[in-house]
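Memo to structure team: turn this sequence into structure tokens by end of day. - J.P.
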Amino acid sequence: MSDDNTLRRPYLTLPGVTGMPNLRELLAQMPNENKHRFESSGEFIRRLAHRVTKWREGLAEGEEPAIFALMSNGDAVEVHTLGEDGHSSVVVEGSLNGSSCMFISHQSSFQVLCYTRKIVEEKPKRKIGFYVGGEEIEA
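Reply from structure team:
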């Protein structure tokens, strides 16, 4: 039922399985590299980039997606680029109150707000950069 054109893809797909699978048995059969795929910051960023790309395709003319990284004190960093920092952390380059900044967070406490905004005519459409495993994904 998973479709690459949807915004929501499951973290783990089990074709033909009904009921609750035995997760320990399933993990025991997986190669070590794949066991934590759904837990990695790289997978989180790759999935977010996919969602933003698909979301952008459905937006009205004159609108673009924007992302804010929410900090624990309530401030919001406008995301220009989002990358992995090791297995479980993310690094954001963006702006906060008009100043450039870099924000690093463990992915378990990392929160984002995605929204649409009107494109300002004098500025070109802005892409958001995502970096995973040395690969750049623009959305």
